[in-house]
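Q: I'm writing a short methods note and want an example of a predicted protein-small molecule complex. Could you take the sequence and the SMILES for adenosine-5'-diphosphate and return the bound structure as tokens? Please keep the output block clean; save any remarks for afterwards.
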Amino acid sequence: MDFDFSPIVDNWGFLAQGLLITIELSVATIVAATLVGIALGLGRVYGPGWLRVPLTFYVDSMRAIPVLVVLVWTFFAFPLVTGITLPPFWAALAALTLHISAFVSEILRAGLNSIRPGQVRAARALGMSGAQIVRKILFPQAVVRMLPAYGSLLSVTIKDTAIASVIAVPDLMRQSETIAAQNYAPIEVFTTAMLAYFLILFPVTRAVEAFYRRVAHLGRS
Amino acid sequence: MESTAAGLRKNGDQPPVVQYDGVVKRFGSLTVLNGVSARVNKGEVVCLIGPSGSGKSTLLRCTNALEIADGGRVVFEGQPLPKTEGELRHVRQRMGMVFQNFELFPHMTALENVAVGPITILGANPAEARAKAQMLLEKVGLGAKGGNHPSALSGGQQQRVAIARALAMDPDVMLFDEPTSALDPETIGEVLNVMKRLAEEGMTMVVVTHEMSFARRVANWILVFDEGRVIEEGPPAQIFDAPTHARTQSFLSHLGWNG
Amino acid sequence: MTLDWNVVWQYRGDLAQGVLLTIALTVATMAIAVPGGIAVMLMRQSHVRAVSFAGTVFVEFFRNVPLILLVYWAFYVLPILTDIQFSAFATGLVAMCLNVSAYNAETFRAGVNSIRKGQLEAAMAMGMSRSQAMRKVVLPQAVRRILPVLASTWVSLFKDTSLVSVIAVGELAHTALQIRSQTFRVLEMLTAMAAIYWLLGYPQAKIVDWIHRKYGVTE
Ligand SMILES: Nc1ncnc2c1ncn2[C@@H]1O[C@H](COP(=O)(O)OP(=O)(O)O)[C@@H](O)[C@H]1O
Ligand SMILES: [Mg+2]
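A: Understood, no commentary inside the block.
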């Protein structure tokens, strides 16, 4: 077996562009999905009854459907329904946000529900309003308690961005496919890409774990 | 009983701070409070004693409307407790509450725990609220611990912060629900001392406790609970030395109380 | 735009076959990745440094690369590495198993570690042998911790099988996408594909919730 890594060296700029897109899509998805997920989660836990039912249905549906299916539908079918064609990057961002935000809301809900009722009692006894209790007492503690699961979700999100390659988002995955095919060097190129993903993901998950260990006591009532 | 008791009691000639008129509370089919009538005068320390499950905590929670009584009424400073949540919040702001499990907010430092009420609820100036919080921490002997999070405090220290947190709202009455039951024996004393000092300063206090020597020394009035009723009440000397009700006698002897 | 939902009915046989293959891939992966995960967990606990290190590398690596990339990689690398022509299904199965075994190994490790050492000691103090204590005391408790996580992994795995469509394994996603390109009934086929996944996945998600409620440990 002879390996030839020259296609990677020769095309490093092309691959680096892909890496940049991967990072951009990851960050944009994480920010958007976190914001939407928080809104969904708060709506599910504290919202009026008529809102909780559809939100729960939405979240459970996203847990049931593969992200690939959401992605393909958003890119190919959504324009047929609405007449609005999204460029691949934006379609990927929309689809990933739809999907990941459901999981953010699940994690937030679990965090909020895990806080013992005495905390609410203490805040009510002080005279706080419902909104103040959520904002000042429950939400900050839930955020701390969410961290381990949220860290796993960050990792899942970054990995899921690779699926955007199927709708031709020029991310690291897609650029690697291109180089691999052009140079008949799939093993070298895909192995390198795997290492690149690993080098992003491993530190991210480790950093979240380390951060959680430092702040865990802030969520322990 | 009211009329004879009034003369015996501290500030018995003035209107009470809290008055319970036949309070009834049910959880489903379970009647937890079955017509409790009692009063708490200004500057008094009233201790609630009795077997566990007899409804003491529930009465305390009905006082600041964490639970809403199903029958009878709770009168606070001459006004029956209001009905709407917004009005109830104002009432709660004038009653401090201390819990068995402290319930400090873990994401805030000791100082922030004490200052959060005045800042968020009363809209106090943050700098002033923090200065006052520092003063209250000093008062409970924790002036140097303001920057610590609850996780870095012992149980006794946490409970003293919790007392300071309640005091920061300048309450007219303090409600204590077994404040020392979750503490290691060696830290119980420090919390009881703070409570004793508070009593000496004239704070009106309602205290659920199993610390009979505290009740004996500090209380002005004892209410003995059993199965959702006050079965006996009186000054400590009478309750502890000459209990008239058989169940009071058996309750006290179970606790090993022998005068 | 005229819609022709008939196309879904017309290709019902192909779609049903896709569903069967999706289910087969899910079941086969879990059937291999449970013992696989246990093996990797045991590797990590080995006293031989090289073995435990290899176990750790396996877990960290395969949890930290995208599955779709792993699928491509397996597609090109396996035949060269082993000199055997793998079917697309077998290739997909290998990639899925590497990924899920790594997750399971971590699940098992966390489950066993969560049982306090005192439990094992208490059982042995009662006169049980070490293996009796493991079987009768530690494992039943660990199972309660592990089962909910395995259930969640199962649903993720079920959804992830859609990714082997990129190497033309004829499971549900690939079948539906193929029919779409043959018939040009894009909206109908993509919607039908989502609906079928939903019909299969929604009850699974609900069962997972139920398992979490039944066995979930709240601390
Ligand atoms: N929220 C509740 N729901 C149902 N039952 C309750 C609730 N709170 C208290 N109880 C019941 O009411 C009874 C009295 O409780 P409590 O007031 O806590 O007693 P004490 O403080 O004297 O030990 C107990 O039987 C308890 O189980
Ligand atoms: Mg109680």
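A: Remarks, as requested: The longest helix of chain C spans residues 12-44. Residues B 27, 32, 52-58 surround adenosine-5'-diphosphate (ligand 1) (CB under 6 Å).
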